[in-house]
Design a protein that fits this description.
This protein is α+β, with helices and mostly antiparallel strands. The chain has a single domain, classed as Jelly Rolls (Sandwich). It is 32% helix and 27% strand. The protein has 4 helices and 9 strands, in the order βαββββββαββαα. The protein is globular and about 40 Å long.
């Protein structure tokens, strides 16, 4: 793990390179998301959304990598890598709160997009998917907590 760039910061001991989650959308959930979503082509800067933006879309990473970063002012506090199968922006879409991270796609990323309304309709029409979504959210939470606990004082 890489230390923060500013050692005098209260955040200087935070881990800054994590994997988003071991739990991703697979099986029927992945197939349904793919069927209900449309292809997404990032802008030239490859930014999907920025920290603080309203949750307009949920992204499904089919191929490549998405890097999620958290900033305080101009300081990067944390960097999280998402792997194929990841649902990017899930906490913001579920809570209808602003994105808490900035998401940037790799050049080779293949991404699908789903509106919050379409995502809500999907989980309401297939209640078992709610359990899958909860598992993904719990895994993401557990990954961050574990990294914080395992990071040396």
């Amino acid at each position: 793990m890489i230390p923060s760039k500013r050692p005098d910061s209260e955040f200087s001991r935070l881990p800054i390179d994590l994997v988003l989650s071991d739990c991703v959308a697979e099986g029927d959930l992945a197939l349904e998301i793919e069927a209900k979503s449309t292809p997404y082509s990032p802008e030239t800067d490859r930014i999907l959304f920025r920290q603080g933006d309203p949750p307009t879309l949920l992204y499904f990473l089919k191929k490549g990598e998405i890097t999620l970063t958290m900033h305080s002012g101009d300081q990067e506090l944390m960097r999280v890598r998402a792997r194929p199968g990841s649902l990017i922006g899930l906490p913001a879409v579920v809570s209808n709160e602003p994105y808490s991270l900035t998401a940037r796609a790799s050049l080779d990323a293949e991404i699908r997009q789903l509106t919050p309304e379409d995502f809500d309709n999907l989980v309401q029409s297939r209640p078992r998917f709610c359990v899958d979504v909860l598992k993904i959210l719990a895994s993401e939470t557990r990954s961050v907590r574990k990294a914080l606990v395992d990071f040396p004082p």
